[in-house]
Amino acid sequence: MKTYKIAVAGGGSTYSPGIAKALMLKKDEFPVSEIRLYDINEERQRKVALITEKVVAEFDPNVKITSSTNPKTAFEDVDFIFAQLRVGGNAMREKDEKIPFSHGIVGQETCGPGGMAYGMRTIAPMIELCDFASKYAPQAWIINYSNPAAIVAEAIRKERPNARILNICDMPIGMMLRMAEILGADKDEIEVDYFGLNHFGWFTDVYVKGESRMNELREYMSENGLVTPEQSKDLQHSDVDWIKAHKNVANMLKLFPEYIPSSYLQYYLIPQTVVEQTNPEYTRANRVMDNREKNLFDSIDHLEETGEFKEGFKVGVHGTFIVDVAMSIAFDRRERFLLIVENNGAIPNLPSDAMVEIPAYVTSRGPEPIRLEPIGLFYKGLIEQQLASEKLLVEAALEGSYQKALQAFALNKTFPSAEVAKTVLDDLIEENKEFWPVLN
Ligand SMILES: NC(=O)c1ccc[n+]([C@@H]2O[C@H](COP(=O)([O-])OP(=O)(O)OC[C@H]3O[C@@H](n4cnc5c(N)ncnc54)[C@H](O)[C@@H]3O)[C@@H](O)[C@H]2O)c1
Ligand SMILES: O=P(O)(O)OC[C@H]1O[C@H](O[C@H]2[C@H](O)[C@@H](O)[C@@H](O)O[C@@H]2CO)[C@H](O)[C@@H](O)[C@@H]1O
Ligand SMILES: [Mn+2]
């Protein structure tokens, strides 16, 4: 049986040990001989490699774990590259969130000005990663989690149209897990219809064993959002920030009951509510640094000091989803997932060159998206505005255009006016000098 070599770009990520464990949990079906961690931060990666080795050795001591800052060593002849770069780290995430909040605007990792700032930092490194892949592992598929996934996907579509890359997000699958719990169903029994852009989409129907349960879900979620009946269950992201986001789904459903919105639509549909609910001095980046990141690195320090292994991380849907997608490619399983793909007529009344998030069957040749019905004018209007904002942002980064960056910001629904958009853009330029292309 073939064994697989997997590279993890952004190997020092808080998610690397969980992804390695998710691979090991499937090792009988999907045998892995090597996991290679690649990062630009050697020390962070060294530490994460220590715990990753421990995790893997508990399942199979023969799996080789290597870490390198050299792309040739990391990527040569691998079968898959799992990408999870956070360009600028959490220090820059904190600025992405706090600068907009200081002007009363939503500050968020992937949405609005924070997401656009993160996008400006991430486009060039992701293009570079595609080039490493085509040089050292031309047969490999990159399965990309690196955010902001919508902006990354558009930039790669434009600049490297032949790259073997699948852009994915764990938000839909995370929401589906919650829906299963609300409906008392098994997670594998759930199937959904969905359309949109990444972090900007709607579930149009939800089935359990082929039967629509949309009415029941709508009724429950209009009151409770995504807060499940048993919060005690250890679902990932049950912390205070996500509980607020999950409750805000109810507020959006009360306004627009037709479809179930992605929780991320709160940043565009009810931005003032989000601003009022957030402490601008202690944002999501602070919570992540004080919890997910700290817990992982504390457990690594403990391991280094005592030799004792405490997990300090979770596999969650994040780990299992990327492994399931890889297995569907590796074994031509034709499994259905929600993925970010080029529209190409799948949503007939959206542009062909939009990177949309829709159901697709994943084969060894890549994704086969399904064809949908035309979408309603309300959704089309919202999506086209957001799409134009994302496309202009990518053009701004590639052309070094200040004017296009300002247009991207001004078009984004998180801003009340072009004047505020300019103020926030100028602050972000100042703080991102080390990372952004120069804008003239
Ligand atoms: N698409 C999704 O649904 C989804 C879900 C969860 C996380 N994510 C994304 O996964 C990524 C990792 O998140 P995290 O919280 O673990 O971040 P993290 O900061 O813990 O890890 C990211 C790693 O990327 C490395 N890195 C930065 N630039 C790099 C480059 N040019 N080349 C190689 N490595 C580089 C950093 O040094 C760091 O070790 C982020 O982009 C996050 O937004 C996406
Ligand atoms: O604020 P963070 O860093 O904790 O998380 C940001 C990521 O959140 C989303 O993923 C969630 C998902 O929505 C949730 O249901 C659960 O499964 O956990 C996921 C993270 O592991 C989002 O999709 C990502 O793009 C964000 O990076
Ligand atoms: Mn996501």
UniProtKB/TrEMBL annotation:
Annotated cofactor note = Binds 1 NAD(+) per subunit.
Q: Coiled coil located at which positions?
A: none
Which residue intervals define the domain Glycosyl hydrolase family 4 C-terminal in the entry? 194-414
**Site, Increases basicity of active site Tyr: residue positions:** 109
Q: Which residues bind substrate?
A: 93, 147, 284
Per its UniProt record, the required cofactor names are: NAD(+)
What keywords are annotated for this sequence in UniProt?
Cobalt, Glycosidase, Hydrolase, Iron, Manganese, Metal-binding, NAD, Nickel
Pfam families assigned to the protein according to its UniProt record, in alphabetical order:
Glyco_hydro_4, Glyco_hydro_4C
Q: Which InterPro entries match?
A: GlycHydrolase_4_CS, Glyco_hydro_4, Glyco_hydro_4_C, Lactate_DH/Glyco_Ohase_4_C, NAD(P)-bd_dom_sf
Q: Which CDD domains match?
A: GH4_GlvA_pagL_like
Asked if NAD is a keyword of the record, the answer is yes
Q: Which residues bind Mn(2+)?
A: 169, 199
Q: Where is the active site?
A: 170, 264
Q: Which GO terms describe its molecular function?
A: hydrolase activity, hydrolyzing O-glycosyl compounds; metal ion binding; oxidoreductase activity, acting on the CH-OH group of donors, NAD or NADP as acceptor
What biological-process GO terms show up in the record?
Answer: carbohydrate metabolic process
Query: Mitochondrion among the record's keywords?
Result: no
PANTHER family xref list: 6-PHOSPHO-BETA-GLUCOSIDASE-RELATED, MALTOSE-6'-PHOSPHATE GLUCOSIDASE
Family the UniProt entry places it in: Belongs to the glycosyl hydrolase 4 family.
- Which protein is depicted? 6-phospho-alpha-glucosidase
Species the sequence originates in: Metabacillus idriensis
